[in-house]
Each structure stands twice: as structure tokens, then as C-alpha cells.
From TrEMBL:
Domain DUF4190: 75-130
Keywords: Membrane, Transmembrane, Transmembrane helix
Pfam families in the cross-refs: DUF4190 (PF13828), Septum_form (PF13845)
Species whose genome carries this gene: Streptomyces cinereoruber
Residue ranges with Pro residues bias: 14-42
Region (Disordered) residue spans: 1-73
Domain Septum formation-related: 163-261
Protein name: DUF4190 domain-containing protein
Transmembrane intervals: 75-100, 112-137
Length: 406
């Protein structure tokens, strides 16, 4: 509703004001007349005090009789608070006992607070003593401490993929997505998604080269990194494969050039470390694997096209396998093997010499038809290495589904 403005009215003046007739002064010695102030907007005739806009006489906050309000004892408040906090219960008891007589003496408020503080402090003291005697307090503290440590540890184990270090095992809950921003480092004995085998910096580009270019570099170099980290390839589960983290176009702008190589489960987590290099193998095991692994590596690089489609590529590949076989034969002969491995290794060298002849025929085939004729015989001639591996303490059974006997 709209407010109405007050209307001022003025009484008409009929005659000019006339001075009132002053009464004669009283005789000397007689009582003097008492004067009262004229009525005003906040006074009534005969009233010596005016109630202002902030309350009755006595000033702000005054009580009904003009007395100041009672203050609350700070000791009583502190006693109540200390009684609630178990570790401060003894202090709360003392504060409450000191507060009571002071409240009576000074006329303060807070007697109920002091009594409540004393009661709560006493109960807390009893519970504290019982906890110490029965060990319950210690158990509770241990549980609290463990929870804090686990929380801190969980936060510390959450990392960027590019902060991972060689040998760390990790879980990547976003592994199926295009980009991963966070992984959790876990104990390798526990189930995990992958294990870091190493990494490298991408060089040779002044601008972002594109994901395909970096992917091609990563696949080639991470294969070498993985072979150096997990030399006992037969110990790698069947569904664990080459895996790597690449810089994105956004992180590249911020200076990120790191590729992190790993071995990761394709479908499900795995347990245990896959590391088998100079830090975990002895000299005999290391020399054996360095001699034989090149054969396995080259065999996996067989061209996708048949000899009928690309005879030159298949013939070149057969030559690479032949070189790896001859290299293994020579390397095994240059090493002195421990007693238990002497005979199995000697047998293996003999088999490699026979295998070399078959692969030489494949590598020197005149055409695709001749290549096909020598192909199956060459593969069948690949020797079994399980006996020599077992004698050296290596994994002597190839992973299920392995395509070669080496």
C-alpha cells in the first residue's frame, strides 16, 4: 500500500499575540512557585524524564530497575567445553570446581554450565582411565592412526602416469579410455593392471608431430625396453602385452615429452613382478637369455603378407631368423656353463646347428613356391629350450598359446 504524507495544518491568526499580564511578585519570604517545562513531543506535563527512542531511563541494556545484566562465568563455559573433549577432561573438572564458588561470590550466571562441565569431565576421566587400563584406548588410537596412515598412503600412491618409475606396479581404472590422468601405485604382489618397464623422451620434433608418429616410435622403442626388463619371456602371462603412455597434444604444449613403457594385462589384473634382468638374474641366466631371445623377437616380426604377395619381405625375414639362430649357437659356445646346465646347453647348441640348415634353405628360396616348400620344415626344426632353461633355474614351460618352441 502507498503511504500517505502527513498534512500540516496552521491555525488562523485572528489577532497579533498579546503579552500575558504578569502576576505580581510574591511577597518576600513566601514560597517561590515551582516551574515545570512546557509539554513537548516526548514529555507529559509534570514528568521530569523523557523516554527516548532507545528505551526507558537507565541507558542501553539496563534491567527493569536500571541494574546491569549478570555476566556468564568464562570458567564455567571452559569447563563444559573441556568436559566434552576427552583428553581435556581433568582440566574441565578443575575449571568447574573453581567456577562454582566464584559464581556465588560475584553473582554471575553459569552455575548450570559449571555443574554440567564437572559431570561431563568426571565421566570422561572415568572412561579415560578404563580405556588405559583395558587397552581400549590404545586400540582406538591404533585404529585411528592406521586409518590416517592408509589415507595418506592412498593419496601418496595416486600419481600421474608420467611420474611412474621403472619397477612400479600400478592400477589404471581409466585404462579403457583414450586419456588417463591418474594411476595408483600398488605392491607388485597384489593384483595390478601393469608394471613399468622403463621410458624415454621423444626428441627430434620442434612442434607436435601427431599421435600416430609418437605411437610408432613408442611401439618400437618400448618393445626393446620391455625385452631388457623382462628377459625371461616365458614368465610373462599370455594375456600380458606391450603397453605405453604417450604425451597428449595438450601436455606436449606444456613441455611433456615422456613415453612410459609397461607390461599390462589385456583383460584382467595379474599378480607378481615380471622383472627379470641383471638385477634379478645371475650371470649364467642373463647370458643364456641374451643369446636365445633374439630368435624369439625376430620370429614375432614375420610379415603379414604371404610370400605370394611380398616374396622379398618374407625372404628377408627368414634371413634375419637365420642370423639370430647362428648368433645364439655362437654365443652359447662362448660361455662356461655350470655343471647341471652343461649337457642341456650342449644339446641345444647341436639342435641349433641343425635348425640353421633348414632356415638357410628358407632364406635362400628362389621363389614363392620354393619358399612354401621349405617353410614348415624350418619351423618344425626350431629346438626346444625347456631343459636348458630348467637347468639354469629359468621358467621351463612356455606360456599357454605361445607360437614357438624357443
Amino acid at each position: 500500500m502507498r503511504a500517505r504524507s502527513p498534512v500540516r495544518t496552521t491555525a488562523p491568526q485572528e489577532h497579533p499575540p498579546v503579552d500575558p499580564i504578569q502576576p505580581p511578585p510574591p511577597p518576600p519570604g513566601s514560597p517561590q512557585p515551582q516551574e515545570w517545562p512546557a509539554p513537548g513531543p516526548y514529555t507529559s506535563p509534570g514528568m521530569p524524564y523523557a523516554a527516548g527512542p532507545y528505551g526507558p531511563p537507565g541507558g542501553p541494556g539496563a534491567g527493569p530497575h536500571g541494574q546491569p545484566p549478570r555476566s556468564t562465568s568464562g570458567l564455567a563455559v571452559a569447563s563444559l567445553v573441556s568436559g566434552v573433549v576427552c583428553c581435556l577432561a581433568p582440566l574441565g573438572l578443575v575449571l568447574g570446581l573453581v567456577a562454582l564458588p566464584r559464581i556465588r561470590k560475584r553473582g554471575q550466571a553459569g552455575k548450570g554450565l559449571a555443574i554440567a562441565g564437572i559431570v561431563l569431565s568426571a565421566l570422561s576421566c572415568v572412561l579415560l582411565v578404563l580405556g588405559l587400563v583395558t587397552g581400549g584406548f590404545s586400540s582406538a588410537w591404533s585404529g585411528f592412526k592406521k586409518g590416517v596412515e592408509e589415507g595418506v598412503d592412498e593419496a601418496a600412491r595416486s600419481k600421474s602416469p608420467f611420474s611412474l618409475r621403472t619397477g612400479q606396479c600400478f592400477s589404471d581404472h581409466g585404462k579403457t579410455k583414450d586419456y588417463t590422468t591418474e594411476v595408483t601405485v600398488v605392491d607388485c604382489a597384489r593384483p595390478h593392471d601393469g608394471e613399468v618397464t622403463g621410458g624415454f623422451e621423444v626428441t627430434g620434433f620442434t612442434t607436435w608431430p601427431g599421435e600416430d608418429a609418437i605411437d610408432a616410435i613408442a611401439e618400437k622403442r618400448c618393445e626393446t625396453v620391455n625385452l631388457a626388463y623382462a628377459m625371461d619371456t616365458w614368465a610373462i602371462p599370455e594375456d600380458v602385452w606391450l603397453f605405453y603412455y604417450l604425451p597428449s597434444s595438450q601436455s606436449w604444449k606444456l613441455g611433456d615429452r615422456t613415453v612410459t613403457c609397461a607390461l599390462a594385462g589385456e583383460k584382467k589384473p595379474f599378480s607378481g613382478s615380471l622383472r627379470s634382468d641383471a638385477t634379478t638374474l645371475d650371470a649364467d641366466q642373463t647370458h643364456f637369455l641374451k643369446s636365445l631371445n633374439p630368435i624369439e623377437t625376430v620370429l614375432y616380426r614375420e610379415p603379414e603378407e604371404d610370400p605370394d604377395e611380398d616374396f622379398a619381405a618374407n625372404k628377408a625375414w627368414a634371413g634375419e631368423v637365420l642370423a639370430a639362430i647362428d648368433g645364439a649357437h655362437a654365443a652359447l659356445g662362448r660361455h662356461s656353463w655350470p655343471g647341471a646346465a652343461t649337457k642341456p646347453v650342449a644339446t641345444l647348441r647341436k639342435d641349433l646347428a641343425a635348425t640353421s640348415k633348414q632356415w638357410r634353405a628358407l632364406a635362400t628360396a628362389a621363389d614363392a613356391d620354393a619358399y612354401w616348400e621349405a617353410y614348415d620344415t624350418a619351423f618344425d626344426a626350431l629346438p626346444a629350450t625347456g631343459d636348458a632353461r630348467g637347468a639354469l633355474g629359468l621358467t621351463d614351460t612356455p606360456p599357454e598359446g605361445a607360437g614357438t618352441s624357443t
